[in-house]
């Protein structure tokens, strides 16, 4: 009988948040603010408040819960957790708006928050048996527990571009004036700007253009439900730069694992130049699909380019093969009787090798076996670009889509889309909870804190706390 699917009760959420290290450690970074408004609450409170705001989907609702008894419940839970008592008066949105802005508007403090989050998350992953160096898999056959996968998600702003012509935005703004605002600190926004988010931009995603802010999130997970761990989050600073943000996140996360990661899974946003950078700088394989050369009606035309003529000795004679790369794989091409090109065979992957250079960068080598009726032979290829104009990394894959390992590893990516839709369900009407990208980044980070804390707690629970979230039902807890 399948285990019952359920949503965590608020008492479990409080316990999970206080037991995991995120709330206390990220809170420490908010200590000692340079600006002197006297702090009524300990520094861990803004982090816990942000996470609870995502649990309740609205800061307005969270405030009502806190005043209505949740604050007392939180103080009781804190007693056993070794954190400073938050005192008798509830912390509510106006205080949060102040402390959150201090935390995220200063670039150094923001980077420290994101860095510390990733450090804690990698440690959690390793406690769960993920990203462990030396144990499982190889560069040739990476183990799914040593794969990190990521995705970008565009969150639409609260206000649309032309609010004057937009009923939905008008009604949202009207709600805000009547006190039902979803955590937008309208006081701090001049009236002229109140109804637009100037940090939003038009992002071209595979599913079309979306106006908003684009956030990139990376994960690792085991096979069990509720085992997903968010490893890092960041914001794309301009349209067209999602891949650069993704590479920067990989560069933040991978060194923390000291060799625990073998492969990175991402979608087609990572082009050859990014794939080459991840291989060279981080020493990691990238597993992703090859962008189609063209789409004609329903037919996808796969990318193909010549690789060169390769010869091997058969007895005293030389045998030549005209090799190409098609959809990431090395193929052997010949000519049919009528002169049209013909695929003779697809090479099989033999081994992926990696060497580290004196300057700390890496170089990969791919060994593939070419079938030949006289005698099979193996060639070694460099997957790196020889110069800026070389598009080899755009074409050649260390684990191409046709390889049996591809499906096993690339399949992880579906889970990142599941995280994105879960995050969007914590937002009312599928729009950002705050105005401005820094605050929205804090909202995403706070959701990651909530998710990771629940994931850590569910390792010890009979029923995984995150299971309901992962199966995509939308029933909510009281
Ligand atoms: Zn041959």
Strand content: 15-25%
The radius of gyration is 26 Å
Helix content: 25-40%
Structural class: alpha+beta
Measure the end-to-end span: 26 Å
Give the helix tally.
14
Small molecules (ligands, ions, cofactors) in the structure: zinc ion
Total beta strands: 15
Overall morphology: elongated
The overall pLDDT, averaged over residues, is 85
* Main sheet characteristics: 6 strands, mixed
What is the N-to-C order of secondary-structure elements (H for helix, E for strand)?
HHHHHHEHEEEHEHEEEEEEEEEEHHHHH
**Spans where pLDDT lies below 50 across 5 or more residues:** 1-5, 162-193, 467-478
Can you tell me about this structure?
Among the domains are: 140 residues, no CATH class; 86 residues, no CATH class. It has 14 helices and 15 strands. Helix 1 crosses helix 4, helix 2 crosses helix 3 and helix 6 runs parallel beside helix 13. The two termini are 26 Å apart. The N terminus and C terminus are likely disordered.
Which properties best describe this structure?
elongated; 15 strands; single chain; 6-stranded mixed β-sheet; 4-stranded antiparallel β-sheet; alpha+beta; disordered N terminus; 478 residues; binds zinc ion; 14 helices
């Amino acid at each position: 009988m399948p285990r019952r699917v359920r949503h965590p009760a608020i008492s479990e959420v409080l316990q999970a948040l206080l037991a995991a290290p995120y709330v206390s450690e990220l809170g420490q970074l908010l200590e000692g603010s340079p600006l002197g408004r006297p702090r009524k609450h300990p520094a861990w409170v803004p982090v816990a408040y942000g996470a609870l705001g995502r649990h309740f989907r609205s800061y307005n609702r969270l405030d009502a819960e806190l005043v209505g008894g949740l604050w007392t419940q939180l103080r009781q839970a804190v007693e056993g957790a070794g954190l400073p008592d938050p005192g008798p008066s509830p912390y509510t949105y106006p205080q949060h708006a102040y402390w959150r802005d201090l935390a995220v508007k200063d670039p150094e403090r923001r980077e420290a928050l994101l860095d510390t989050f990733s450090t804690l998350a990698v440690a959690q992953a390793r406690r769960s048996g993920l990203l462990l160096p030396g144990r499982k898999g190889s560069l040739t056959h990476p183990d799914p527990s040593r794969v990190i996968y990521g995705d970008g998600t565009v969150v639409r702003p609260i206000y649309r571009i032309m609010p004057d012509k937009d009923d939905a935005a008008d009604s949202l703004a009207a709600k805000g004036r009547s006190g039902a605002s979803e955590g937008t600190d309208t006081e701090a926004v001049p009236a002229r700007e109140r109804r637009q988010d100037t940090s939003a931009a038009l992002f071209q995603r595979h599913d079309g253009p979306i106006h908003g802010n684009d956030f990139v999130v990376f994960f690792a997970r085991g096979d069990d439900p509720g085992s997903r761990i968010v490893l890092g989050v960041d914001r794309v600073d301009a349209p067209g730069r999602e891949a650069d943000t993704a590479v920067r996140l990989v560069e933040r996360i991978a060194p923390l694992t000291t060799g625990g990661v073998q492969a990175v899974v991402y979608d087609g946003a990572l082009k050859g130049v990014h794939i080459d950078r991840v291989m060279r700088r981080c020493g990691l394989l990238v597993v992703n699909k090859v962008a189609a050369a063209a789409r004609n009606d329903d037919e996808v035309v796969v990318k193909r380019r010549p690789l060169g003529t390769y010869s091997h000795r058969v007895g005293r004679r030389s045998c030549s093969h005209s090799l190409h790369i098609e959809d990431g794989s090395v193929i052997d091409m010949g000519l049919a009787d009528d002169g049209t090109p013909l695929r003779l065979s697809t090479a099989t992957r033999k081994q992926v090798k990696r060497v580290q250079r004196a300057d700390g960068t890496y170089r990969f080598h791919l060994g593939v076996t070419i079938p030949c009726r006289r005698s099979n032979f193996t060639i070694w290829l460099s997957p790196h670009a020889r110069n800026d104009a070389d598009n080899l990394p755009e074409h050649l894959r260390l684990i191409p889509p046709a390889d049996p390992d591809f499906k096993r590893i690339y399949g992880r990516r579906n889970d990142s889309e599941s995280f994105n839709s879960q995050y969007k369900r914590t937002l009312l009407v599928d729009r950002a909870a705050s105005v401005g990208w820094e605050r929205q980044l804090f909202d995403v980070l706070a959701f990651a804190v909530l998710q990771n804390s629940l994931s850590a707690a569910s390792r010890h629970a009979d029923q995984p706390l995150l299971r309901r979230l992962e199966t995509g039902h939308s029933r909510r807890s009281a």
